[in-house]
Amino acid sequence: MKEFAIKENHLFVKAYTKGKRYVTHTVAVYVLRDYKAGKLRKENPQKEFLNRIGFTATTKLGNAVVRNRCKRILRAAYRGVTAEHPIGKGNLIVIAAREGAIPASSRQVQKDLLRAFRKLELVGEKGGQA
Predict the structure, then answer these.
(1) CA-CA distances (angstroms) from residue 9 to 54, 74, 76?
(2) Percentage of the chain surpassing pLDDT 90?
(3) Neighbouring-strand partners of residue 55
(4) What pTM, to 2 d.p., does this model score?
(5) Cα dist. 48→30, 42, 105 in Å?
(6) What angle do CA 98, 107, 99 make, to 5 degrees?
């Protein structure tokens, strides 16, 4: 299923300041309940709740090539986690790359991402709004 991207800066800031977070060696994950999820559900042709997701990499990580590689690895890891495990819906999810993600493979990042999702209760029995 296609995920919707977070494009507005105020949504990133809201997830950073008000959301729950979990930090690993390669990623920092911020999760906040999306209050616009009901409206997005009505507009969605399948009439299901959706996650809005954003990937970030700061300039501290390196130049544009390094930052884009990190974001590609984060996207691949997220797709791997969602393919294997059902993720709770109706959330704003921001995944930020950390310095450990520069040399890491997508499999290593996927393990860290899965651990973060479990700690934030997005995967498992309490898998969010679903």
Answers:
(1) 10, 19, 23
(2) 68
(3) 95
(4) 0.88
(5) 22, 8, 32
(6) 15
